[in-house]
Design a protein that fits this description.
2 copies of one chain form a homodimer.
Chain A: H1 7-17, H2 24-36, H3 39-55, E1 57-58, E2 65-66, H4 72-75, E3 80-87, H5 90-97, E4 104-108, H6 126-132, E5 140-143, H7 149-162, E6 168-171, H8 187-195
Parallel strand pairs in A: 3-4, 3-5, 5-6
Antiparallel strand pairs in A: 1-2
Helix pairs in contact in A: 1-2
Chain lengths: 200, 200
C-alpha cells in the first residue's frame, strides 16, 4: 500500500512511524498534513527539531533538560534546596510542577532500573544524585518514581543507597485517586489506601 | 504546566500540537522522544520534512503528489488510461491502490466542495480533470469521493459537468462492509445495500 507513495513522502511517513504510539495510518495522515503546510510552517517544524537537539542538554545539578547550564528550578532562589524529589523522566517533573504544591527541587533519573532491558543504576543519573547529597544541605529525598514494578525497585534501590547518609527518605502516598470511585478501585490500591489511612 | 518546559523544547511541543489528532500530552511525549533520539536520527526527521516539501509537487496530469513531473501511475505504461478514478485526496488513491484491483488512473481533487468552508470547484483540481477528457481517450470516470454530504455533492457536481461529454460516469457501490454485521449496520447503509442488490 505504502509502496505507492513517492520516495520523499515515504521517508517522511517512516519518520513519523518511528514515533511512539504512531501507527502506519496516522503516520500517513501526519505526513500529508505536513506536506500541505505552507513552506515556512514546515521549516519552523523542521528547525524546532534540530533546535531542541542542539540547545537542550542536562542541567548540571538535577539532570533535567535545560537550555542553560542550570534548569529554571535549580537556578531559582525561591525553591527549597533542602528537598529533592526524584523522578524517572522530565515529564514526571512537569506533572509535579503542575500541582503548584511542591517548592523543592528535582532529580531526574532518566529511566528506571530494568535488568531485562539491560538498564542498571549506571545508566541512570544515580551518581549525580549521590554527589548532591554530600554537602549536607539536603534534609529529605522524596522518591516519586512510578508505581510500577521497575519504579518500585528503583525507589528501593536508591533508598538503600541513601540510608547510610542519614537523610529522610519518603515515598509518594498510594491511595484512591481524587474523584475516583471506591467500587471501581482495584484491590491493591484499596489495600494501600487502607494501610496509609490518616486521622481526620 | 507547559510553562516549565525550556523554550526550544516548548517550541517543539507546540509544533507537534499543531498536527491533527495530537493533543497536549501526546505532543509532549513526542517532543521528548525526538529529544532522546540520537542526533543523526533527529536530523533525518528534520530533513525529511523539508525534503518532502521541496521535492514533492503535483503530477501534471492527475494532480496526485509526485517527485517527478508525472506520478508513477500516470507514468506507467501498463495502467489503463481510459478509466479515471476521481478521489478527494492522495490518501484515498493509496487506499484504492491497496485493493490491487484497480488498473486505471486517478484524478485527485485535493478536497471537496464545501461552501461553508469557502471551498468551491475553483479551489479543487476540477478544470485539470476536464482538460484530461478533451482528447476522447477516456471511456469511464469513477466517482470515488467519500460517502459524506460534501463528497456526494462534489460527485454530483462533477457528474453534471461531465454528462454533456458523453462519458460513462459511475459511483462506488454502497452496501454492507465485508465482515460487517447486518444487525449493527445503520439503516441508511442497509437501505442502499438493498437498493444495490445483485443477482447471485
Amino acid at each position: 500500500m505504502a509502496s505507492y507513495n513517492v520516495a520523499p513522502l515515504q521517508r517522511l511517513v517512516e519518520q513519523f512511524e518511528r514515533l511512539p504510539g504512531i501507527g502506519g495510518k496516522t503516520a500517513q495522515r501526519l505526513a500529508y498534513f505536513v506536506l500541505n503546510m505552507p513552506e515556512d510552517r514546515a521549516r519552523e517544524f523542521s528547525d524546532a527539531i534540530m533546535d531542541a537537539h542542539k540547545k537542550i542538554h542536562r542541567c548540571r545539578i538535577c539532570c533535567n533538560f535545560s537550555d542553560q547550564e542550570l534548569c529554571p528550578v535549580c537556578r531559582s532562589e525561591t525553591r527549597d534546596k533542602t528537598t529533592i524529589c526524584v523522578v524517572e523522566t522530565p515529564r514526571d517533573a512537569i506533572a509535579i510542577e503542575g500541582t503548584n504544591e511542591y517548592k523543592g527541587t528535582y532529580h531526574v533519573l532518566h529511566g528506571v532500573i530494568s535488568p531485562l532491558n539491560g538498564i542498571g543504576p549506571d545508566q541512570l543519573c544515580v551518581k549525580e544524585l549521590l554527589s548532591r547529597l554530600n554537602n549536607g544541605e539536603v534534609n529529605e529525598v522524596i522518591m516519586a518514581t512510578n508505581p510500577s514494578v521497575e519504579g518500585e525497585a528503583t525507589a528501593m534501590y536508591i533508598s538503600r543507597l541513601l540510608k547510610p547518609l542519614g537523610i529522610k527518605i519518603t515515598r509518594l502516598a498510594y491511595g484512591i485517586p481524587v474523584g475516583g470511585d471506591l467500587e471501581y478501585t482495584d484491590y491493591v490500591t484499596l489495600a494501600r489506601a487502607l494501610e496509609g489511612r490518616s486521622e481526620l
